[in-house]
Write a structure and sequence with these properties.
By secondary structure, this protein is α/β, with parallel strands linked by helices. It has one domain: Metallo-beta-lactamase, Chain A (4-Layer Sandwich), CATH 3.60.15. It is 25% helix and 21% strand. It has twelve helices and 19 strands. The strands form four sheets. An eight-stranded mixed beta sheet has the order 7-6-5-4-3-2-1-19. Helix 1 crosses helix 2. The longest helix is centred in the first third of the chain and has 16 residues, at 70-85. The protein starts with a strand and ends in a 14-residue tail after the last strand. The mean pLDDT is 91.
Length: 346
């Protein structure tokens, strides 16, 4: 593919994630839509409404769930229900990428009393919804692949590339398998509030942006978040766009060093875990050194840390947040959406 016309839509779904990667292949003129997370259950309708109102086509070529927290996969459950029932919001999803924990755990590793026959049910319960639906059960006949960076080393339904323009950088299969036994099966995500009464300033030390708050913060301990699928979109002009889900320092440490080296001075960053200080540190921000950073979040103190924003700004990034601007679009060679105005960085 040759992609010279593209846009990334970040939908305002409060403290959740829902991104649409929309691009055109210059050679075939085909219009692609890739959904990267879909927010909470009720946000699925918002995704469908956005596509209806702003895109020419009414389908999703690829839907990706980065990890098993409801604020990322819940909306996809709604969309799959609509597809199953041929509802008004049926987006005719053509392909799904989501890891299956049941394929990466043995009965002996499960911490709950269980028999071999219900191992899969227990492992997959991280994708259960309160309405009784399960994300993996809803996939049905849709082509389904598990996204791992080392997919070429494995047989079965695994992928690490879509058309040469979207690549999976992490996790590896082995790293994902190391995390699955510690997945939470009560479905309660750990809300990370941040004490914003602390001094949040960033400074330069030896030419590098630095925050004492980030230096002192512990790495996110959630195995769900650490298992996040990390994706890179690359345009025709070499610009790198990095989607990090809710990944953390440990996630990055388990990526091949050659990949990390290639992520120096990227163009665009989806800041992980709604801007939490537990998911990026000074070193990561200085290495990525993005020109543009997008944060999907609700407000300062609820995940979002001013320290993260200040260090990003200190390295020269233009930082945007749904908490201030609502839904936003980063676009290249496309028209601005109806009703949109120019966003102002934080």
């Amino acid at each position: 593919m040759k992609i010279t016309k593209y846009e990334i839509d970040m939908l305002d779904v409060a403290a959740a994630d829902a991104f649409l990667l929309h691009f055109w292949d210059d050679e075939t003129k085909y219009e692609y839509v890739i959904l990267i997370d879909a927010g909470n259950y009720e946000d699925g309708k918002r995704v469908a409404k956005f596509i209806h109102e702003h895109y020419n086509q009414q389908y999703i070529d690829l839907a990706i769930s980065t990890h098993c927290d409801k604020d990322h996969f819940g909306g996809l459950v709604y969309l799959l229900q609509q597809q199953r029932d041929n509802g008004v919001d049926n987006m005719n999803i053509k392909e799904i990428w989501v890891p299956d924990p049941a394929q990466h755990i043995t009965t002996g590793q499960i911490k709950w009393k269980t028999k071999e026959g219900i191992k899969d049910v227990k492992a997959r319960s991280v994708y259960d919804m309160d309405n009784g639906e399960n994300l993996l059960d809803l996939i049905g006949d849709i082509p389904w692949f598990q996204p791992f960076s080392d997919a070429s080393n494995w047989n079965g339904n695994v992928k690490n590339d879509y058309g040469g323009v979207l690549k999976v950088l992490g996790p590896t299969v082995d790293y994902y398998r190391s995390l699955v036994p510690d997945f939470r099966n009560d479905l309660q995500a750990k809300v990370q509030d941040s004490d914003e009464s602390q001094a949040q300033e960033a400074e330069l030390r030896n030419g590098k942006a630095y925050s004492q708050v980030l230096e002192d913060a512990n790495d996110d301990q959630s195995s769900h978040n650490a298992s996040s699928v990390i994706l890179q979109f690359q345009s025709y002009d070499g610009k790198k766009f990095l989607f990090m889900g809710d990944s953390c320092r440990a996630s990055i440490d388990n990526i091949d060093q050659t990949i990390i080296d290639d992520l120096k001075d990227i163009y665009w960053l989806k800041v992980p875990h709604h801007g939490s200080k537990h998911n990026m540190d000074n070193e990561m921000i200085n290495h990525f050194h993005p020109k543009v950073a997008f944060i999907s979040t609700e407000k300062y103190g609820h995940y979002l840390s001013k320290a993260i924003v200040n260090v990003l700004k200190k390295v020269g990034a233009r930082v945007y947040s749904t908490s201030e601007q609502g839904s936003m679009c980063h676009h290249h060679n496309t028209e601005t959406h109806k009703g949109y105005t120019k966003s102002t960085p934080l």
